[in-house]
Protein: VWF/SSPO/Zonadhesin-like cysteine-rich domain-containing protein
Organism: Lymnaea stagnalis
Amino acid sequence: MPLCTEVQDMDPCLLKGFMSRKNATMKCIKLKSNGFRRCHREVPPESFFTSCIHDLCTCQEDSKCLCSILEAYARECAKSGVKVAWRSSNFCDFECDSSKGLEFDECGSPCPRTCANIQTSGHNLKCLKPCVPSCQCPSGKVLHNGKCIFPSSCPHIEMIPVL
């Protein structure tokens, strides 16, 4: 009966060549840049940097992959209490409809305040999910029919008791 030999994990950058690793490294260095510096003490970037290079060497669409990696690092930073504004209008942009009053929040609530839930005491929606990069209403406004409005403008919503 033949025995299995140990399988080695192949580095995709070695398979693709020196230029592939160099290009990936040049893109992933963003994790160690000033834009993320405030987070480095809380979440060391080294493991994300190594994973980033590996992932970019295997990825077909580097820009989407790079944005996903940077987003994952920013999410870890936010979990540690450090919000990082790393996106720009020409880099991993996140479009929000400003005509509806929405603005981008790197670490927004996955359970936004709405006219329907504004009466919930302390906004306790049992929302235990981590923050998410998303379009949110600015502080002092709530979402209603896809637009941000002042809570005083909410239509009267009759609360039906749950039995």
In short: The chain has five helices and four strands. The mean pLDDT is 85.
